[in-house]
């Protein structure tokens, strides 16, 4: 394994992971809000935010799907050393990471079962930019309405319609993160 | 009506302080060290590791000390600690054929390769209290004998060569894990074995005994019982190969049971399997008997309605932490639940009395 | 099955010895060789567990037996050599010593570390194994026939 794969983890794992987890939790609790998430320096093409999310959420019990250019030797080695997450295809993953075009179609991911809606995938979507403009979001965690630069509308509407089943999304760009849980209602602005 | 009450904090704190004092016992008597428990109460330590499902003799000894020797309480402490550990991965399956055996006996073959090695066993002791142990004393060193480096093959291996016993072909399906996904039935054999190896020893023993007494009798012989150390090897992703990360003591029991056969296959012996952390012989034998009883369906036997054949009954009642948690919670405050029962019984009594009065009047 | 052509056989062997060494032993042997080399952490010592698996019937399908405690770490010497450790138990200082030995074995100091640490550990481990095996051998039953009758 290349020596670079062994670098770029959290410098102070317990604290850094706690801070990152809080950012992810707040992003999920308040859909459409942007949060800083730092501490990781993953290999290209991953953003620092996506790297920190992986370090915080993934371990040997969470099968991970790397989509598109995220599935490269440098990322695979980095994920192996720092998280131990087993790599898998979309249909068996708990987490998936990649650009929006590479992650589709969404129908291949597990959406949970009526008994266990939590047995579903969380997709970490790498974005060129992330702003609180664009699609209109309403639902739990949102006072009136929020906005987020989502990569589409229809797919998220269809996902929300399956509630309590469905996928959850994290959007990452640079050192920033936003989230869209399945409970959020999405419509064009 | 619901009344929330608060209180008892000081009583609880004081109860804990007294518990600590009682645990220590008479301060004029020397305190037990964790190392003393680990070395001198090692079979208790082994049971706590097996049922706590965590191999760490020092932690198990500490848990026994903290639990005042209540092994189920100690197992509870270990289970709780276990949940705080990040899991680095899973080992490659241990190779019990390569075990450095302290003990290895067979009840089915007198002369077998590797021989009958008794090991440190209670088996031939007279079960008379040894009052010498009440006084401190040095123990003479155990005798030694030259060893031959001959391998110690599994007994089932050579029965297998003649086709006399069912084969257990290798397979690399990743096993289900009941610590990650809730146990559900029907449970495959891998899941049943995981549940049984961490099951309560007393429960497993009773279930096994019931099969011997005729409830799903399967005529078990101990084909082999072995106790000893095996290395644990794990794939290390950053290295790209597997290394040994330690060595653990295991007890393995293979039973040889009565035949199955069909129109197409001649009769052959069947097998039950027990594998448990530590030197835990009674548990391993019990596990093998219960494993065999639970295999009735795949071996084409009849369901006789025996408890030991009923996977749902066995697996859902085998875990002593689940059992004690549910059992002991009924001693905790249920004031509101009981209040409603009280009101209900009063109402029923009023109605019954009223009905009697009316009947008498008619 | 040991594959003699395995290019990693040497490293597997020393990592296995280091993992099974008694508490404090690797550090003591390392200390005796002089001051420790400077190093930086790639992964600070961390305590966790490994799920130990067995096989049904000893040879069949795998099942989960229970976990064991494990300590791991990874470090890099100033010269660039990377050392890893995965050792049984909750022993951060021992994991650090084991990773240092693993790293040093990839440097010019390899021969010295082999003689000063690994050979000693190997000798001690085989003595422990032999003692236990000899006690077990003393409890091996020698059957002899008392009577063999025909009537």
Describe the model:
- The complex is a heterotrimer of chains A (189), B (362) and C (151).
- Chain A has a single domain (3-187), classed as 3-Layer(aba) Sandwich (Rossmann fold).
- Chain A is of the alpha/beta class.
- Chain A is built from five helices and nine strands.
- In chain A, the strands form two sheets. A six-stranded mixed β-sheet of chain A has the order 1-8-7-4-3-2. A three-stranded antiparallel β-sheet of chain A has the order 6-5-9.
- Chain B has twelve helices and six strands.
- In chain B, strand 5 and strand 6 form a beta hairpin.
- Chain B has helices at residues 9-24, 34-40, 42-52, 57-66, 71-82, 155-161, 189-197, 201-212, 281-294, 311-317, 320-329, 335-361, and strands spanning 54-55, 87-90, 100-105, 221-236, 241-260, 268-277.
- The model of chain B has no long low-confidence stretch (mean pLDDT 92).
- By secondary structure, chain C is of the alpha+beta class.
- Chain C is built from four helices and three strands; from the N terminus they run H-H-E-E-E-H-H.
- The longest helix of chain C has 29 residues, at 110-138.
- Chain C starts with 8 loop residues before the first helix and ends in a 13-residue tail after the last helix.
- Chains in contact: A-B, A-C, B-C.
- Chain A binds chain B through residues 1, 5-6, 59-61, 77, 80-81, 84, and chain B through 86-90, 180, 237-240.
What brief labels describe this structure?
heterotrimer; A: alpha/beta; Rossmann fold; 6-stranded mixed beta sheet; 5 helices; 19% strand; B: 362 residues; alpha+beta; 4-stranded antiparallel beta sheet
């Amino acid at each position: 394994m290349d020596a670079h794969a062994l670098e770029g983890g959290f410098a102070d794992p317990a604290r850094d992971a706690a801070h990152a987890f809080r950012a992810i939790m707040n992003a999920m609790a308040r859909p459409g809000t942007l949060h800083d998430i730092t501490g990781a320096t993953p290999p290209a093409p991953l953003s620092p935010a996506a790297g920190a999310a992986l370090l915080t959420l993934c371990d040997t019990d969470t099968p991970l799907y790397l989509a598109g250019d995220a599935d490269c030797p440098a990322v695979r080695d980095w994920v192996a050393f720092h998280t131990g997450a087993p790599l898998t295809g979309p249909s068996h993953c708990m987490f998936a990471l990649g650009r929006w075009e590479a992650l589709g179609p969404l129908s291949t991911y597990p959406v949970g079962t009526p008994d266990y809606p939590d047995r579903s995938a969380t997709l970490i979507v790498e974005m060129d930019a992330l702003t609180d403009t664009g699609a209109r979001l309403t639902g739990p965690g949102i006072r009136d309405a929020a906005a987020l630069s989502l990569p589409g509308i229809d797919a998220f509407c269809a996902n929300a319609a399956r509630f309590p089943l469905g996928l959850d999304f994290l959007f990452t760009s640079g050192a920033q993160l936003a989230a869209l849980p399945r409970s959020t209602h999405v419509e064009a602005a | 009506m619901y009344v929330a009450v608060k209180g008892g904090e000081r009583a609880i704190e004081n109860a804990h302080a007294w518990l600590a004092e009682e645990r220590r016992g008479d301060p004029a008597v020397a305190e037990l060290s964790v190392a003393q428990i680990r070395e001198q109460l090692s079979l208790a330590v082994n049971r706590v590791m097996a049922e706590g499902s965590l191999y760490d003799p020092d932690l198990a000894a500490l848990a026994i000390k903290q639990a005042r020797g209540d092994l189920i309480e100690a197992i509870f402490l270990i289970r709780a600690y276990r949940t705080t550990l990040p899991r680095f991965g899973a080992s490659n399956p241990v190779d019990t054929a390569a075990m450095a055996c302290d003990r290895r006996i067979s009840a089915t073959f007198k002369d077998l390769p590797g021989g009958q090695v008794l090991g440190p066993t209670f088996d031939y002791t007279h079960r008379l209290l040894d009052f010498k142990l009440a006084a401190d004393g040095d123990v003479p060193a155990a005798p030694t004998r030259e060893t031959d480096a001959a391998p110690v093959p599994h007994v089932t291996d050579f029965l297998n060569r003649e086709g006399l016993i069912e084969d257990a072909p290798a397979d690399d399906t990743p096993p289900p894990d009941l610590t990650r996904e809730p146990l559900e039935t029907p449970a495959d054999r891998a899941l049943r074995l995981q549940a049984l190896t961490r099951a309560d020893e007393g429960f497993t023993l009773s279930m096994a005994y019931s099969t011997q007494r005729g409830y799903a009798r399967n005529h078990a012989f101990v084909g082999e019982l072995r106790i000893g150390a095996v290395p644990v090897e794990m794939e290390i992703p950053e290295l790209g190969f597997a290394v040994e990360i330690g060595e653990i003591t295991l007890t393995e029991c293979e039973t040889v049971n009565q035949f199955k056969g069909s129109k197409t296959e001649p009769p052959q012996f069947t097998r039950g399997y027990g594998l448990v952390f530590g030197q835990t012989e009674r548990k391993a034998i019990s596990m093998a008997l219960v494993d065999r009883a639970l295999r009735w369906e795949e071996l084409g036997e009849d369901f006789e309605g025996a408890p030991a054949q009923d996977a749902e009954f066995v697996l859902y009642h085998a875990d002593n932490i689940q059992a004690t948690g549910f059992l002991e919670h009924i001693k905790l405050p249920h004031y509101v639940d009981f209040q409603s029962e009280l009101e209900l019984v009063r109402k029923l009594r009023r109605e019954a009395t009223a009905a009697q009065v009316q009947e008498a009047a008619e | 099955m040991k594959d003699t052509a395995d290019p990693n056989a040497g490293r597997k062997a020393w990592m296995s010895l280091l993992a099974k060494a008694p508490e404090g032993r690797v550090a003591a042997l390392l200390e005796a060789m002089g001051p420790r080399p400077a190093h930086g952490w790639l992964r600070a010592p961390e305590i966790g567990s490994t799920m130990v698996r067995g096989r049904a019937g000893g040879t069949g399908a795998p099942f989960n037996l229970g976990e064991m405690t494990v300590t791991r770490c990874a470090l890099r010497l100033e010269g660039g050599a990377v050392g890893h450790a995965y050792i049984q138990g909750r022993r951060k200082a021992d994991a650090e010593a084991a990773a240092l030995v693993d790293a040093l074995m990839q440097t010019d100091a390899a021969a010295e570390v082999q003689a000063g640490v690994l050979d000693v550990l190997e000798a001690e481990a085989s003595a422990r194994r032999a003692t236990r095996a000899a006690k077990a051998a003393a409890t091996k039953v020698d059957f002899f026939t008392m009577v063999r009758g025909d009537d």
